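for the writeup, i need someone to sanity check this before i put it in the appendix. the sequnce is what the collaborator sent (i think, or maybe the updated version? ugh). structure was predicted straight from it, no edits. if anything looks off just tell me and ill rerun, i have time this weekend
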Amino acid sequence: MNPIQEYFYRIEEPDRSTLLFLRKKILESDQENITETFSFGLPFFKYKKKMLCYLYYSKKHKKHYVSFYHGDRLNHPELIQEGRKKFKILLINEEEDLPVQLILNLITEVKQFIKA
């Protein structure tokens, strides 16, 4: 098992299925330019080899989240900065439908700030 598979394997259901679905949607959104790496013990998504976003778990909020690079430039009410300089996070609420379209729209917005 590679480190990315191992990361997801350690997550309990139903969170694992939710994150794997989200991972698939992110990778499929731009198959030519978005790649996945394992950095800092986390699955990172890169756009043309530059940081785009990553998935992680917030102990404070007790929820998984998507963290967006260049988040400091994103203006959306659901994003949380909490002292981060370049990143903002979007908490994933397991009780609600996954906001796939919002996440993909935010990724599209972040891609505009990445110099290729």
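The chain has a mean pLDDT of 95. The helical segments are 3-9, 15-28, 100-113.
thx in advance!!
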